[in-house]
Specification:
By secondary structure, the protein is mainly β. The chain is 7% helix and 27% strand. The chain is globular and about 45 Å long.
């Protein structure tokens, strides 16, 4: 799912680090958006809405909508489509406006 090589753009990006998603190591490229690393690893649902508890994924990809918000390093409402990967960061699915306890 990740563009690792491209004949015209001369892209040669291999995973060089990892993020912890729900306690699991996910390979990532330093500096790529968190959402890109998760989607490349097969993660499709990034958050659940507060009202209907429906799953959301990446939508606009430029930080304008709210669909990719997750809890990153303990901070809720982080837009993962524009937040770059740093080694060892922790990422959690967001439920409603914050943590998992709000899903009930």
């Amino acid at each position: 799912m990740r563009v690792e090589q491209h004949p015209i753009l001369e892209v040669d990006r291999q995973p060089d680090t990892y993020i912890l998603y729900e306690g699991k190591k996910i390979p990532a490229v330093t500096g790529e958006p968190i959402a890109a690393a998760l989607i490349a690893a097969g993660v499709r649902t990034l958050r659940y809405t507060a009202k209907n508890h429906t799953g959301r994924s990446i939508f606009c990809g430029i930080g304008r909508c709210n669909d990719c918000k997750m809890i990153v390093n303990g901070v809720p409402n982080t837009r993962t489509c524009v937040t770059p990967v740093e080694e060892g960061m922790t990422v959690e699915t967001q439920y409603g406006l914050g943590g998992k306890e709000e899903q009930a």
